From TrEMBL:
Keywords: Aminopeptidase, Hydrolase, Metal-binding, Metalloprotease, Protease, Signal, Zinc. Its cofactor is Zn(2+). This is Aminopeptidase N. Belongs to the peptidase M1 family.
């Protein structure tokens, strides 16, 4: 692959540490450019880091660090560039071979003149103050999250995935703190009233996979299949922990055993522990030997649905699969980050599915992937699976639904094309060939192409290297590809359609495996909804596939219109017993409700929607379905009667048989009550705050409450605080707050936050976690459906014609639904105007 983006060397602010300024090459730009990455890969190897960090109690004291980096250089024709994305003042001393040397600190890099270096082995010692940015510090614990290029925000290193290194970490922590890292704990001693944890050398790992956590944790060690595993966690509810811990250990053991068998390679990293963190940014992160998880995803509530249980098994299998796919064999450059994600998902599905025979996995795959992939792929801001990346600092922007949702669909198509056997054999060869090294997608395609009679390279060029989704229509009873954004592009995939009544009714993509928009005629759609739940419309996958077609139709102006769809969904729900389909129907109902219906239309349906969902909530016996109805009721209820019901559930005076409410549920009920009450929210929120026992949840509530205030001035003041980086540290909290700040019921008053939120985006990308820019935009715009809101985003893009390509795409993605809503309200508004639609 060639990179067309020119390398621009930014005007550098050079801080000269001495009189010696002999400069050998242009100053490196901020971040790790592709050129720097290539240069270092060619010249540096055998890297080892010895790092020592002294962590004080509390969340703000300075963490002092010492480090020795040893490596081989195969040439000394240029200065050495280490990455350290912290203020110059954090750098105290640099030594080469034990001798203090001059250096330059430029654009977040330490640059050491080549005169200090030698061909062969070198040793650089650095004293520094560790940067806080990716340490996620709280008063009594901290944890790292260094993906994709954030290790250099903490300590100096070569922060790129293809320079794998061995790490040897020593942590000094307050007494009473636990500590865990990738390496095995060799010794724990006490020195000057502090605990000293010495971890052993790791196997070669990429910098984004290096990790540690320290603080007040509970821990439990088990031996599973002869392998010792320690779980670190923060949850204080012992009943909850007891209910879940056996499952959590067993799911790990099972995943590892399955993967060893499939890959024919033993677990590669020796020691295996995992750490459960409240409000962790992702479901999990695959640090070898020390996987981090979001605690609530693993410690489930008593009433957890089968979906939640499978999601838990899946995230554990996903992170375990990464030990091979991503950790043992790693992408060469972050543009191939999708590959490790798709394999982790692909393996997780194979591992987890057989344990949940009660779930229709075809339906689940359909509903979990296709709608989410379309949500991005139908927008003007979509991207190919394999993207270009000129500088690692932009790696975060590569992540999104195309990687997580479309890529698994494409990978499943590949396996169907070449067969499971050839797939497994190719993957075994790939893992074996590149063990403890790096590889690209094209390396795998090469291995498959060599074994398969099919032309996999051409197929890969369309599905993996170009963006967008195909559109199909029916002509003369056959499915045909409609206009494509790229002329001449052929989306090779097997497609099916089902006909009824002598071809009068046509149902394209009835097995739900085809990827694209399948346009249906009005009569077939009407028949489908009218017959929903009857003998001819009972197959779950068929129902799912047609519902997806209908939703995509609504968004493209092909109907059914928003009111008709609300009506159809309300008619379908009582006939639906499949939890996945109930969930999908309720999801569409809510999006339709808030994004496409105006206030008058909602008012006309309000009592009926609440009444029917309340009735279904009370009559269902399936726990998963009940939870879905509870969530929908909570989100949609707005009448006095609905508010009273929520209030009754919250106080416990009203009970729904079978529904157990967790502390989280109570908190979210209190939020909705405050949002929808007439000014009496403060007391409810206060009562809930006092009743909340878990300290992490309590702190999160304290943060979110101002965003719910009935006073616009207070909400404005809260929004102002988000402009400061330190107030955005707990990103999960910020996202919660944004949801309420921009709730459709407060859309008007929130319009003024849109422009400043866009203005902050570049800073957010620099300071936040990799998913944060997307989520920030999504939670900001999801509550809006007004032309004013759409105009604010359009104006912003117009005023910034040179806005970074990736971020511009994220804006286009986040505002797609808004734009469609504005555009379609005219189209549908004329066809539909009253709730007098049939209730069948
Ligand atoms: Zn992953």
């Amino acid at each position: 692959m060639t990179f067309i983006r020119p390398l621009i060397f930014l005007a550098a602010t050079i801080i000269v540490a001495s009189a010696c300024t002999r400069q050998q090459s242009p100053a490196p730009e901020k971040g790790v450019s592709f050129a720097l990455n290539q240069y270092r890969k060619q010249h540096i190897d055998s890297i080892q880091y010895q790092i020592e960090l002294d962590i004080p109690a509390g969340k703000s004291g300075q963490i002092s660090g010492k480090e020795i980096v040893t490596f081989h250089l195969n040439a000394v024709d240029s200065a050495l560039v280490l990455d350290f994305n912290v203020d110059a003042s954090a750098l105290q001393e640099v030594r080469v071979g034990g001798k203090k040397v001059d250096y330059q600190f430029v654009n977040e890099h330490i640059v050491i003149d080549s005169k200090h270096l030698s061909k062969g082995k070198n040793e650089v010692g650095i004293d520094f103050v560790a940067g806080d940015q990716s340490l996620n510090r709280s008063d009594d614990y901290l944890y790292t999250l260094f993906v994709p290029d954030r290790a250099s925000t903490c300590f100096p290193l070569f922060d790129q995935p293809n320079l794998k290194a061995s790490y040897q970490l020593t942590l000094k922590t307050p007494e009473g703190w636990e500590a865990v890292s990738n390496g095995k704990l060799n010794a724990k001693t006490v020195e000057n009233g502090k605990s000293v944890y010495q971890f052993g050398k790791t196997k070669p790992v990429s910098s984004y996979l290096f990790a540690f956590a320290a603080g007040k944790f509970f821990k439990e060690t088990r031996t599973m299949d002869g392998r010792e595993m320690t779980m670190y966690y923060r949850e204080t509810d012992t009943t909850k922990v007891n209910r879940n811990r056996d499952d959590v250990f067993q799911l790990h053991a099972k995943s590892l055993a399955w993967l060893e068998e499939y890959t024919n390679i033993d677990y590669p990293f020796g020691k295996f522990d995992f750490v459960l963190l409240p409000s962790f940014q992702y479901g999990g992160m695959e640090h070898p030997g020390a996987i981090f998880y979001n605690e609530p995803a693993l410690f489930l509530d008593e009433n957890a649905s089968v979906n939640r249980r499978m999601a838990r098994a899946s995230v554990i299998a996903h992170e375990s699969a990464h030990m091979w796919f991503g950790d043992l064999v790693t992408m060469d450059w972050f543009n191939d980050v999708w590959l490790k994600e798709v394999f982790a998902n692909f393996m997780a599905a194979k591992i987890v599915h057989p344990s949940f025979p009660e779930i229709n996995h075809e339906l689940r795959f359909l509903l979990a992937h296709y709608p989410n992939a379309y949500e991005v792929d139908r927008t003007a801001g979509t991207n190919p699976i394999l993207q270009q990346l000129g500088n690692l600092k932009n790696a975060g922007t590569l992540y999104g639904a195309i990687i997580y949702m479309k890529a698994p669909i494409v990978m499943r198509q590949l396996e169907r094309k070449i067969g499971e056997e050839l797939m497994r054999e190719s993957l075994r060869e790939y893992l074996k060939t590149y063990s403890f090294g790096n590889a690209r997608w094209d390396d795998l395609i090469g291995i498959i192409d060599k074994r398969s009679p099919e032309d996999i390279t051409t197929w890969s060029n369309v599905w993996v290297k170009t963006p967008g989704m195909p559109e199909y229509g029916i002509e003369a009873g056959k499915l045909v590809q409609l206009k494509d954004s790229v002329s001449g592009r052929v989306w090779e995939q097997p497609l099916v359609l089902k006909t009824m009544q002598n071809g009068q009714l046509v149902f394209p993509n009835n097995d739900g495996t085809g990827y694209g928009y399948f346009k249906m005629d009005t009569a077939s759609k009407a028949w489908f909804f009218a017959q929903y739940g009857n003998a001819k419309v009972s197959d779950p996958v068929f129902k799912g596939a047609m519902l997806v077609n209908s939703w995509e139709g609504l968004l493209r102006g092909d109907g059914p219109g928003p009111e008709k769809l609300v009506n159809s969904i309300l008619n379908a729900l009582p006939k639906e017993q499949n939890p996945l389909l109930v969930d999908y129907l309720l999801g569409n109902l809510q999006t339709d409700w808030w994004a496409f219906l105006n206030a008058d239309q909602r008012a006309a349906y309000q009592a009926r929607v609440e009444g029917e969902i309340w009735q279904l909530l009370n009559s269902t016996r399936d726990k998963g379905i009940q939870t879905s109805y509870f969530r929908a009721f909570k989100a949609l209820a707005l009448t006095d009667d609905g508010w009273q019901k929520m209030h009754g559930l919250w106080t416990g005076k009203l009970e729904v048989k079978g529904l157990v409410l967790s502390e989280e549920d109570k908190i979210s009920l209190a939020y909705e009550l405050a949002l929808k009450g007439k000014g009496d929210g403060k007391a409810i929120l206060n009562t809930q705050l006092n009743a909340t026992k878990n300290p992490d949840r309590k702190a999160r509530m304290q943060f979110v409450i101002p965003a719910l205030s009935a006073s616009e001035a207070e909400r404005d003041a809260f929004f102002e605080t988000l402009k400061k980086e330190e107030n955005r540290e707990k990103e999960a909290w910020v996202l919660d707050a944004l949801t309420y700040l921009h709730h459709p019921l407060r859309e008007q008053s929130a319009l003024k936050y849109l422009r400043p939120s866009l203005d902050l985006l570049q800073e957010i990308q620099l300071t936040g976690d990799i998913f944060f820019p997307t989520r920030w935009l999504h939670n900001t715009f999801a509550g809006h459906s007004s032309p004013e809101a759409a105009r604010i985003a359009q104006t912003f893009l117009k005023e910034h014609p040179d806005y970074p390509y990736f971020l511009k795409n994220k804006i286009l993605q986040a505002t797609d639904l808004l734009d469609r809503s504005v555009k379609l309200s005219a189209t549908y508004g004329q066809k539909e105007h009253s709730p007098a639609l049939s209730q069948q």
